[in-house]
Model the fold of this input.
Amino acid sequence: MGFIRSLILNRNSILVLAVILGLTLGEYASYLKDYNVVILAVTMTFSMTGLDISLLNKISKIVKPMLVGVILNYLVFGAVLLLFAWLLMPTSELFYGFVVIVAAPPGVAIIPFSYMLKGKVDYAIISVTGGFLASVILAPFIVEIFAKSSGIQPFDLFITMVQMVVLPMVIAQLLRWKVVFPIVQKVRGKVVDWGFALLIFVAVGVNRSVFFTNPSTLFLVFIAIFFTIFGLGIGYQIIAKKIRVNHSLVTTQSMLITIKSSGFSVFTALALFGQEAAIPSAILAIIVLVYLIYLSLKNNLNK
Done:
């Protein structure tokens, strides 16, 4: 019983389980597909209760972290990932899936991992919050530039961003009210973990045939995302060390340059471009997990 309990409560195990169930029981994914918007809304709301908006009250102290976060998470990450996608992807739908990843806000996991890996937590909160707010404008802009031929209207995506980012952020701040926040803190991790797991299960399940019949496509997607995340993360750490950037700052920034919200990109890709476009986001979730494990092991070795 102890093993089973630890399995269903461990973030890493939950994500791996979601992938396995998507591959084995993928025929049931279609039943959940229609509820993706609710799952994402709840997941995003609980995940953003970790964002303390009160940290944004001093403009002079937040402009630089926000700007750096946007540059790293959208401009640098986006340029590298889209170059790989443009060179390697065999279909426009798969390429659009990468566009959605670039348009997605940064992953909220940056905040707790900044704490666990001795990074700058306040810097992470400010940068991630800035990335979420910027995504409302940047996501429609990015999709309009790189997926214009798909027929998606930027204003429609803007409305989606308001519904999936702005409203959950507002509700999340209400949940930080001191009367209810202790309860929210107790369940937040599990709600977020299982919410993202359900979205990954759907993304893998509806594309199960591709996983079994078209490994070459999966390999190309894997290569593009793996080398973007690990290449940028390790490369940034090497460069930052040479120019003597503070270690705790590098720890946080190396996640800002590599980690996107895979749950958000899964939902958006499915909603805008269909099943095939969600494949990159499903692979992204797996590689981000591996990257975070790598960072954790590296941190333990350096102690």
About this structure: The two ends are 33 Å apart (CA to CA). The chain has a mean pLDDT of 87.
